[in-house]
């Protein structure tokens, strides 16, 4: 057997072993994440809050207590997180928000929020309905809409030009 074939077989075996190890590691991490989400939801409280402001900012700039920053892994401290400034009773607090919920949190309105510590898990409207986030259009849908709009404008211009000629 030529040496290049042996090297190729070894490389393929190493790649397959890496994929298997990665799959096992991903499974463990997924189970750990599901367990922590279940624990967070189990300890959640429903509170009425008035949302003052919301934005994405770095963890250190958000004004969280030092213990929160210390418990965060070092590689995540520089990432931007969704932060909501809310009034809960007489206190104004900065709270971290779940990424899925952040788009639905309205500013300047009072909402019922499910919170666990300083983490917002979910929101419900206190009065009326929450504003739903607009659906993102794909690239081709945006291009088609632009083309249709341009076509309508051209047709209107032609119709106006014909009407002018008849007069």
Overall mean pLDDT stands at: 89
The chain-level structural class is alpha+beta
Order of helices and strands: HEHEEHEEH
Into which percentage range does the β-strand content fall?
25-35%
Distance N to C terminus: 90 Å
What is the makeup of the main sheet?
A: 5 strands, mixed, barrel
Helix content: 40-55%
According to DSSP, the number of beta strands is 5
Radius of gyration: 27 Å
- Strand order within the widest beta sheet: 1-2-3-5-4
Uncertain runs: none
Q: Any idea what the shape is?
A: flat
* Total of DSSP H or I helical runs spanning 4+ residues: 4
Q: Would you kindly provide a written description of the structure presented here, covering whatever features stand out?
A:
- The chain has 167 residues and is α+β, with helices and mostly antiparallel strands.
- It contains four helices and five strands; from the N terminus they run αβαββαββα.
- The chain has helices spanning 3-42, 66-71, 99-102, 139-166; strands spanning 45-58, 80-88, 91-97, 110-116, 119-125.
- The chain has a five-stranded mixed β-barrel with strand order 1-2-3-5-4.
- Strand 4 (110-116) and strand 5 form a beta hairpin.
Task: Label this structure with key terms.
alpha+beta, 167 residues, 5-stranded mixed beta barrel, single chain
SSE arrangement:
Elements: H1 3-42, E1 45-58, H2 66-71, E2 80-88, E3 91-97, H3 99-102, E4 110-116, E5 119-125, H4 139-166
Parallel strand pairs: 3-5
Antiparallel strand pairs: 1-2, 1-4, 2-3, 4-5
């Amino acid at each position: 057997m030529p040496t290049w074939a042996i090297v190729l077989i070894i490389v393929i075996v190493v790649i397959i072993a890496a994929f298997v190890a990665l799959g096992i590691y991903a499974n463990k991490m997924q189970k750990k994440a599901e367990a922590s989400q279940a624990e967070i939801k189990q300890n959640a409280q429903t509170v009425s809050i008035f949302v003052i402001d919301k934005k994405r900012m770095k963890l250190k700039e958000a004004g969280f207590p030092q213990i929160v920053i210390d418990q965060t892994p070092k590689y995540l401290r520089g990432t931007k997180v969704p932060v909501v400034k809310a009034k809960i009773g007489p206190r104004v607090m900065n709270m971290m928000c779940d990424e899925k919920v952040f788009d639905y949190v309205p500013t300047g309105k009072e909402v019922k929020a499910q919170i666990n510590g300083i983490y917002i898990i979910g929101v419900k409207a206190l009065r009326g309905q929450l504003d739903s986030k607009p659906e993102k259009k794909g690239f081709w849908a945006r291009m088609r809409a632009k083309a249709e709009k341009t076509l309508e404008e051209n047709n209107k211009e032609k119709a106006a030009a014909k009407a002018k000629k008849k007069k």
